[in-house]
C-alpha cells in the first residue's frame, strides 16, 4: 500500500518537474502585463494611424482583440491559481508575446501605414487576414483537400517504408535482394519523377499520392532498418528462451525496438512530404493549397500567396505537434534525457 | 537421476583479428534433478559461454549437452535463462515483462495468479506498471528472475543475476532464489564471482580455470540448510575454495 502511494506521489512530482523543465522561464507579472499592453498598443496604432492602402482592417482588429483577451485571461488565471499547466505555459511565452506584439506594430507601420514595403509583393498582416476572411470558403476547401491528400499519402508511404524496413532489418535474404534497389531508387528526389507520373498514372490525384508517398517511404525504411539492426541481441535471445514465435518476436521485439529510430525517419519524412505536397499540387492539381498558390500567382494576387502560406504554417505546425504527441506516447517507455 | 549431462564439450570462438580462441576445453559434468550448481571462475574463463551452450543459445563444436537424455540444439522454454544484465524488455512494463513468456505460451488465458504471486514474492507490488528504467537495478533483476521462473522451467540458468547489485539488495535476491529453489525443486545452474554466494546457495560448486576454461574441481557442499554465513564450517569451506581459485 505504501509502495502504491509513493508511486503516485512520485508520478505527480515527476509531472511537476517535467513542466518546469519544458516551460523553464519563470512566471513574471511584468512580462505578462507588457504583452497585454503591447497588443493593445498594436490595436490603437492600427486604428489611429491613417492607412495608405485600400484595406478592410476589421478582421485584423478582431484578431488583435481576441489575442488581447486571451493574454488577459491567461494572466489573470495564472495570477489567481499560482500553478498548473496554463500558468507555466503562458508565463514561459510572455516575453515571446511581447516580441510578437512589437513585430505586428512594426510590420503594420512599414507596409499599410507608410508603404515603405509596398504592394503587391509586400502586404500587411491586416491584408492577409482580410484575404483569408474573404476567401475563407475556397481556402477551407483547399485546406481540407490538401490535408486528406497528405494524410492518405503519408500513411501509404510510411506503411510501405515500415514494412520494407522491418523485413530488410530482420531478414538477411530480404536485405540482400532489396537493399541495393532501395539505396539506388530511394535516393532519387521524388520531384524528378513528376513529369513521368503525370502521364503514367490515370489520374493526377494518384500521381500526387505516389509522389508524396515516394518522398516518405525512403527515410522511413532506411531508419527502420537501422533501428532493427541496432536492437541488442540479448532481447532476441531472451525472447527465444521464453518461447516466442517468429511472429511474436516481430511484434514484441522488432517493432518496439526499432520504434525510436523509426520515428526519426518519420520526422525526416514529414518535412519532405510537405514539400512534395505543395510541389505536386502546384503541378497537376485542381484543388489544394499548392494549387491555390499557383492560381494566385497566375492572376498576380500575392496577398493570396501570403494567405496560403499562413494557413500552411498553421496546418503543418499542427501536424507536427500531433506527430510529436504520437511519438511521446509510443516511446513513453524510454528514459527521458533531461539535461 | 541425471538430468543435465555435459560431455567433452569444447568451444572455440574467433577473436577480433579472426584468430581462433579456445574458450572452453573438454568440459565434463552431470547434474541431478533438483541440484543447485554454482560455477565460479575468473572473469573471461567462459562461464557465460558454458551457460549459453546449456541453454541452446550456442552450440559446441565438440561434445554435446543433453537434458533428460535429449540433445540440446536450440533454446527451449524448459530451460530458463536470466542474463547477466537482466535484459528486461525496456518497452514493456514490469508486469508485461514478467508475463511475456506465459503469454507467448498460452495466449491471453495465461496464469495471472502465478504472475501476481511472483510480483508479490519479488517485492514488486506497486511497480507493476512501471517501465524498467523507472525501477532500481535490484527490482529489474528480480523482475527478470520472475519472468523466467513463472515459465516453470526444469532447469534455470542464472548468469550472475546479482553481479551488479549492492550488498543489501544482493542478499535479498539470494534469499528469493533460495526460496524459489526450495519450493519448486527446479535444477539451477548459477554463474557467480562471489564465493559466499556460491557456498550459501548451492549443493555443488564447479571451479573453473582461466582461459581456456577447464573444470579444475567440483566441490560438494556438505553444509545443511539453513546456512549461516558466519559459521566456522562456512568459513572453512570458503578458505578451501579461495585456495583452489588461486591460479597464479
Ligand atoms: N561472440 C564472441 N566472439 C568472440 N569472443 C567472445 C565472444 N563471446 C565471448 N568471447 C570471449 O570469450 C571469452 C569468455 O567469455 P565469457 O563471456 O564466456 O566469459 P565469462 O567467464 O562469462 O566472463 P565474465 O565473468 O567477465 O562474465 C572472453 O575472453 C570473451 O572475450
Ligand atoms: Mg559472463
Automatic annotation (TrEMBL), chain B:
Q: A Pfam family matched by this chain, by name?
A: ABC_tran
Q: What UniProt keywords are attached to this protein's entry? A: ATP-binding, Nucleotide-binding, Transport
Q: Which residues form the ABC transporter domain?
A: 4-235
- Gene Ontology molecular function: ATP binding; ATP hydrolysis activity
SMART domains assigned: AAA
UniProt-listed InterPro entries: AAA+_ATPase (IPR003593), ABC_transporter-like_ATP-bd (IPR003439), ABC_transporter-like_CS (IPR017871), ABC_transporter_ATP-bind (IPR050166), P-loop_NTPase (IPR027417)
- Give the signal peptide, or none: none
Against PANTHER family, the record matches this protein to: ALIPHATIC SULFONATES IMPORT ATP-BINDING PROTEIN SSUB (PTHR42788:SF13), TAURINE IMPORT ATP-BINDING PROTEIN-RELATED (PTHR42788)
What is this protein's name?
A: Aliphatic sulfonates import ATP-binding protein ssuB
Q: Which organism is it from?
A: Liquorilactobacillus sucicola DSM 21376 = JCM 15457
Amino acid at each position: 500500500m505504501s509502495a502504491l502511494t509513493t508511486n503516485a506521489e512520485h508520478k505527480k512530482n515527476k509531472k511537476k518537474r517535467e513542466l518546469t523543465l519544458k516551460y523553464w522561464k519563470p512566471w513574471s507579472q511584468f512580462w505578462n502585463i507588457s504583452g497585454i499592453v503591447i497588443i493593445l498598443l498594436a490595436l490603437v496604432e492600427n486604428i489611429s494611424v491613417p492607412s495608405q492602402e485600400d484595406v478592410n482592417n476589421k478582421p485584423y482588429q478582431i484578431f488583435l482583440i481576441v489575442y488581447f483577451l486571451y493574454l488577459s485571461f491567461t494572466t489573470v488565471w495564472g495570477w489567481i491559481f499560482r500553478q498548473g499547466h496554463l500558468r507555466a505555459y503562458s508565463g514561459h511565452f510572455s516575453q515571446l508575446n511581447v516580441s510578437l506584439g512589437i513585430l505586428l506594430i512594426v510590420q503594420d507601420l512599414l507596409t499599410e501605414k507608410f508603404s515603405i514595403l509596398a504592394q503587391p509583393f509586400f502586404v500587411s498582416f491586416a491584408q492577409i487576414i482580410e484575404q483569408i476572411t474573404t476567401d475563407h470558403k475556397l481556402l477551407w476547401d483547399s485546406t481540407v483537400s490538401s490535408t486528406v491528400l497528405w494524410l492518405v499519402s503519408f500513411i501509404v508511404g510510411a506503411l510501405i517504408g515500415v514494412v520494407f524496413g522491418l523485413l530488410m532489418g530482420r531478414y538477411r535474404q530480404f536485405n540482400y535482394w532489396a537493399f541495393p534497389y532501395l539505396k539506388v531508387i530511394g535516393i532519387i528526389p521524388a520531384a524528378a519523377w513528376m513529369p513521368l507520373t503525370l502521364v503514367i498514372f490515370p489520374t493526377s490525384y494518384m500521381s500526387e499520392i505516389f509522389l508524396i508517398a515516394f518522398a516518405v517511404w525512403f527515410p522511413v525504411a532506411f531508419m527502420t532498418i537501422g533501428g532493427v539492426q541496432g536492437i541488442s541481441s540479448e532481447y532476441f535471445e531472451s525472447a527465444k528462451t521464453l518461447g516466442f514465435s517468429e511472429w511474436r518476436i516481430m511484434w514484441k521485439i522488432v517493432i518496439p525496438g526499432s520504434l525510436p529510430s523509426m520515428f526519426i525517419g518519420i520526422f525526416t519524412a514529414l518535412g519532405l512530404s510537405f514539400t512534395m505536397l505543395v510541389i505536386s499540387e502546384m503541378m497537376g492539381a485542381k484543388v489544394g493549397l499548392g494549387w491555390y498558390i499557383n492560381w494566385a500567382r497566375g492572376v498576380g494576387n500575392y496577398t493570396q500567396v501570403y494567405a496560403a502560406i499562413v494557413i500552411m504554417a498553421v496546418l503543418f505546425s499542427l501536424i507536427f505537434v500531433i506527430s510529436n504527441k504520437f511519438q511521446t506516447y509510443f516511446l513513453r517507455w524510454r528514459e527521458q534525457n533531461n539535461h | 537421476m541425471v538430468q543435465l549431462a555435459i560431455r567433452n564439450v569444447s568451444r572455440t570462438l574467433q577473436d577480433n583479428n579472426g584468430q581462433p580462441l579456445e574458450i572452453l576445453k573438454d568440459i565434463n559434468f552431470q547434474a541431478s534433478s533438483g541440484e543447485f550448481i554454482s560455477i565460479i571462475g575468473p572473469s573471461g574463463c567462459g562461464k557465460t559461454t558454458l551457460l549459453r551452450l546449456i541453454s541452446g543459445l550456442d552450440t559446441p563444436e565438440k561434445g554435446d549437452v543433453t537434458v533428460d537424455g535429449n540433445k540440446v540444439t536450440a533454446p527451449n522454454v524448459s530451460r530458463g535463462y536470466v542474463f547477466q544484465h537482466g535484459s528486461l524488455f525496456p518497452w514493456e512494463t514490469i508486469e508485461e515483462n514478467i508475463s511475456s513468456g506465459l503469454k507467448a505460451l498460452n495466449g491471453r488465458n495465461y496464469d495471472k495468479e502465478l504472475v501476481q504471486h511472483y510480483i508479490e514474492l519479488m517485492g514488486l507490488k506497486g511497480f507493476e506498471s512501471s517501465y524498467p528504467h523507472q525501477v532500481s537495478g535490484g527490482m529489474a533483476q528480480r523482475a527478470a528472475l520472475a519472468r523466467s521462473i513463472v515459465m516453470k522451467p526444469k532447469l534455470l540458468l542464472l548468469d550472475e543475476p546479482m553481479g551488479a547489485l549492492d550488498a543489501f539488495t544482493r542478499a535479498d535476491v539470494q534469499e528469493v532464489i533460495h526460496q524459489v529453489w526450495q519450493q519448486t525443486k527446479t535444477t539451477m545452474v548459477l554463474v557467480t564471482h562471489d564465493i559466499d554466494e556460491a557456498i550459501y546457495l548451492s549443493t555443488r560448486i564447479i571451479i573453473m580455470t582461466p582461459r581456456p576454461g577447464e573444470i579444475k574441481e567440483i566441490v560438494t557442499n556438505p553444509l545443511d540448510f539453513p546456512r549461516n554465513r558466519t559459521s566456522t564450517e562456512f568459513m572453512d569451506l570458503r578458505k578451501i575454495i579461495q585456495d583452489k581459485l588461486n591460479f597464479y
